Inverse folding.
């Protein structure tokens, strides 16, 4: 059975069509953007150069050089984004931010200050494990593993003496 995209018609404005044509033909753009732009151009209902109805999804896929699923997903994305061409061809923005680092500049500075201070009674010098114990006792510092402490100190060229 040949399927059509009548349930989600793609109607591009002349400005959108010009922008997509330029994106497909010139410059260097991400391959995914170019593929989606090609699909939208072939699916366009208002294409003045086309004779007859919009081709089936299988024909669109063949012309754009993609799988039928790509055509379906692109037309669905176009419909979901309310006909916003740029949002359809671009990558989706991340919903959640990446994990915040536990070692910020302030934490790093406090850690270096602690490592440069005189070691506690009974110890000749600071060790990573000793620093780890003191960081746990400090209320305003997050609990850091000795390997993390070592990485921070190494990054800043601090040598425990």
């Amino acid at each position: 059975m040949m399927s059509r995209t009548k349930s989600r018609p793609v109607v591009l404005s002349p400005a959108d069509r010009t922008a997509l044509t330029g994106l497909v033909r010139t410059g260097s753009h991400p391959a995914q953007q170019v593929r989606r732009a090609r699909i939208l151009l072939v699916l366009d209902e208002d294409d003045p150069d086309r004779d007859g109805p919009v081709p089936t999804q299988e024909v669109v896929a063949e012309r754009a050089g993609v799988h039928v699923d790509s055509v379906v997903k692109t037309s669905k994305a176009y419909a979901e984004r309310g006909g916003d061409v740029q949002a359809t061809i671009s990558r989706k923005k991340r919903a959640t931010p990446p994990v915040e680092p536990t070692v910020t500049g302030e934490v790093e500075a406090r850690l270096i200050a602690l490592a440069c201070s005189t070691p506690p009674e009974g110890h000749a010098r600071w060790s990573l494990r000793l620093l780890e114990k003191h960081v746990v006792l400090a209320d305003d510092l997050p609990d850091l593993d000795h390997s993390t402490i070592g990485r921070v100190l190494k990054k800043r060229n601090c040598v425990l003496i």
Observations:
- The longest helix spans residues 31-43.
